[in-house]
Amino acid sequence: MTPKRERDLGKAFMRSVRRSEKVMDDPLLTDYIQSLGQRLIKDSPAHGTPFTFFVVDDPQINAFAGPGGYIGVFSGLILTTETESELAAVLAHEIAHVTQQHLLRAWESTGQMSIPSAAVLLAAIVLGVAIGGDAAAAAAVGGQAA
Length: 146
Prior knowledge:
The protein is mostly helical. The chain contains 7 helices and 3 strands, in the order H-H-E-E-E-H-H-H-H-H. Helices cover 62% and strands 9% of the residues. Helix 6 (115-131) runs antiparallel to helix 7 (133-145). The protein is globular and about 40 Å long.
């Protein structure tokens, strides 16, 4: 996958995630997560890769990496971690998914799914844990039909 195609997939993925209305619009929290993530990548091989860190309003203890360097952290994880180092460890794990291209390799193995369809399907999968089985299944089926 070309870097441009990955960025396009990432942007489409993030639009789908934002439509879930679960992305928190708290400037202090967003700035904190973004700052912590940027500190982790500044001296790493990931430096130069554009990353966007954001918070999903959900009590689950979870985080996920999307295509194009988009990393979501559930609010439940932030509230549960006892130290910044614990939270940083989870972010580092998600950064590794991006730098090692785990998601992109999985996407490429699915064939020639269009970027909009893949983005909706990926968003449904990562948010499906949070929104529940029936809603996630409907979103995934809708994504496959797109």
